[in-house]
Amino acid sequence: GASDKVITVGATPTPHAEILNAAKDALEAEGYTLKVVEFTDYVQPNTALVDGDLDANYFQHTPYLNNFNKENGTDLVAAFDMHYEPFGIYAGKTASIEELADGASVAIPNDGSNETRALLLLQDAGLIKLKDPKDINATPKDINANPKNLKFKELEAAVVPTVIKDVDIAALNGNYAIQAGFDPTKDTLATEKAGGLAAKTYQNILVVKEGNENTAKTKELKKALKSDEVRDYINKNYKGAVVPVF
């Protein structure tokens, strides 16, 4: 029937819905209509997928998905990975990592995965050591070496860019860095490497119900999204705040 040719995907507005829309024409050429439903929260796109209102969603990374499944007893799975949004350390009052004084202040996001990413990045930059260097659930309590006695200010992710002038350095998501007037490709003091643990862990994925990983719709979505056109669109449009992993 007609609904077999409509692919409904839930997404958060930026960058996910925009990236999906960049694949619209390619899907149309294959006889499919792409319908993008935008959500501004992180719960509804998963519940709508569980309820069968969506064929797929695109907004989350695997740690978030695993946690959602565990808390809700759901069986959503990653169909394929698309991009990651590099996390960076940016200069506030102090211009470089080398110049950080003893007791310098560091603003970091206070939510689970982002806080861990900030700590993994500070560890990569040689500023701290974690008890388990690969712990993707690390919090400041798990730091077992902090030679510069850095003082952590744990703030909501959206607040971090607003306090950057009041701290020595800050750890920011790419989208917030852009909002704060930084260029994520040029202005970072340290940034996640494409092949590193964080990039792999926090890749944003296209998610379906278990059993739908290889349906015609999922295959068509994968082909249209993992294309040169979409890769070029991402690179041009987000200038390094969103990095394709294909």
Give a written overview of the molecule.
The chain is an alpha/beta fold and 246 residues long. The chain contains nine helices and 13 strands. The strands form three sheets. A six-stranded mixed sheet has the order 2-1-3-12-4-13, with helices on both faces. The protein has a five-stranded mixed sheet with strand order 9-6-10-5-11. The protein starts with 5 loop residues before the first strand and ends with a strand. The relative contact order is 0.21. The model has no long low-confidence stretch (mean pLDDT 94).
Fold topology:
Layout: E1 6-11, H1 13-21, H2 24-29, E2 33-38, H3 44-50, E3 56-61, H4 62-72, E4 76-84, E5 87-91, E6 105-109, H5 112-124, E7 129-130, E8 143-145, E9 151-155, E10 169-173, H6 174-179, E11 190-191, H7 197-201, E12 204-209, H8 216-225, H9 228-238, E13 243-244
Parallel strand pairs: 1-2, 1-3, 6-9, 6-10
Antiparallel strand pairs: 3-12, 4-12, 4-13, 5-10, 5-11, 7-8
